[in-house]
Design a protein that fits this description.
Oligomer: single chain
Radius of gyration: 15 Å
CATH superfamily: Metallo-dependent phosphatases
Strand content: 25-35%
Largest sheet: 6 strands, mixed
Helix content: 10-25%
Strand order of the largest sheet: 4-3-2-1-13-14
Shape: globular
Number of domains: 1
Number of strands: 14
CATH architecture: 4-Layer Sandwich
Amino acid sequence: MKILILSDRENPSLWEYFQKEKLREADLILSCGDLKKEYLEFLVTMANCPLLYVNGNHDARHAEYPPEGCDSLEDKVVTVKGLKIAGMGGSMRYKEGPFQYQPKEMEKRVSKLKKKIAEEGGLDILVTHAPVAGYGDRQDRAHQGFEAFDTLLRTCRVRYLIYGHVHKEYGAFERVKVHPSGTLLINGYLTCFLDTETGKIDE
């Protein structure tokens, strides 16, 4: 399966200067958050595939007006063409607002999700907004990753963790890292393609 990954910033070639050919290979679209509702609705309309998303810390509108035609992955496990996919949006709490969590709050969410993953016999893809603590995150509070994600990866079988929140412009950007568990960590900033059969990632 070829998956189009989106996060944090609308890609002009899929928005203001839309190029439909960029969607032709997509079997599935996964959004890691902080994207306009209208952008997600446009893409799911133009693409011949489902769009699954988690919420970013700037997606307050989604609480009341979720993107139409798209499916939320928050705190659930779904199966798409044989792939088991789960999602946990939000960032570390650094101010008042929705989709921000204290570490203990995220631990509780992860604990519940781990039970669902165990029932499914493992997980192919975990979609988050924030990164794993120590792997692609930053030192400032707003962009710190969650240790609960690290614990999940060390105890559950997960092939890919796809996240956002840490922009390329912040410096020291790495599209792909490998977690000690063997999980491939992919920063989905802007857009990239993942071929789940080969593990290849294209910009």
